[in-house]
Design goal:
magnesium ion binding, EC 2.5.1.3, 10 helices, 218 residues, metal-binding, thiamine biosynthesis, alpha/beta, TIM Barrel, binds magnesium ion, binds 4-methyl-5-hydroxyethylthiazole phosphate, Thiamine-phosphate synthase
Length: 218
């Protein structure tokens, strides 16, 4: 899937990021419920204590990818370029400490390339290096990721937009239902969420309420 910039912006609205360690129940069930609630994009991020590796990781990726395909939700892989290529994912997401984006672009061709940026300089560099969208954060404090950078809030997105940067942007980190609107108002095209959906007793309802908040904020 090679999405246009407009379609990427639209699909960033409610970006669900998840791996098995983030879930309170079976990840496939969580994903299905999140899709029923209206998520628009999915990232497989199999990381942290107890994360699956090897065959188990590939097998879970394929299972979640098949669910996304059934519902026309693009499937992005975090970090693991080889896995993304092996299963023909729709794209990859890399951070500042991961593989060189120029090398990644060579490997993935026209697949979607998302890059994490924490400030204006990183955003500009990521764009020069061919990012299709930016993940900017952490917006708020989160305990989902332990090695987070300083929390600067939605202000960072405002600064990036003030510098005439039009690339699709999604805010990430600690975003709960009541905070989503601040992120959109700052200039993001959407919110990327782990725990507010994956750890909810009702992922479908959580996704539905988040999507509603995002749509009301535009
Ligand atoms: N990158 C920056 S913060 C974060 C990632 C992957 C974690 C977001 O998780 P949550 O549970 O939505 O705060
Ligand atoms: Mg990474």
């Amino acid at each position: 899937m090679n999405l246009s910039e407009k379609r990427i912006k639209e699909s960033l609205k409610l970006y669900f990021v998840m791996g098995s360690v983030n879930c309170l129940k079976d990840p496939a069930t969580v994903l299905q419920e999140a899709i029923a609630g209206g998520i628009t994009l999915f990232q497989f991020r199999e990381k942290g204590n107890g994360a699956k590796t090897g065959y188990e990781k590939i097998s879970l990726a394929k299972k979640l990818q098949a669910i996304c395909k059934q519902h026309d939700i693009p499937f992005i892989v975090n970090d693991d370029i080889d896995l993304a290529l092996q299963i023909d994912a729709d794209g990859v997401h890399i951070g500042q400490e991961d593989e060189d984006p120029l090398k990644v672009r060579k490997k993935i061709g026209s697949k979607i390339l998302g890059i994490s940026a924490h400030n204006l300089e990183e955003a500009q560099k990521a764009i020069e290096h061919g990012a299709d969208y930016l993940g900017v954060g952490p917006m708020y404090f989160t305990s989902t990721k332990t090695d987070i950078r300083e929390v600067k809030g939605p202000e960072v997105i405002k600064i990036i937009r003030m510098n005439d940067i039009q690339i699709p942007i999604v805010g990430i980190g600690g975003i709960k239902q009541n905070l989503a609107r601040n992120v959109i108002k700052a200039g993001a095209d959407g919110v990327a969420i782990i725990s507010a959906i994956s750890q909810s007793p009702d992922p479908k309802l959580a996704a539905k309420q988040l999507l509603n908040e995002v749509e009301m904020a535009f």
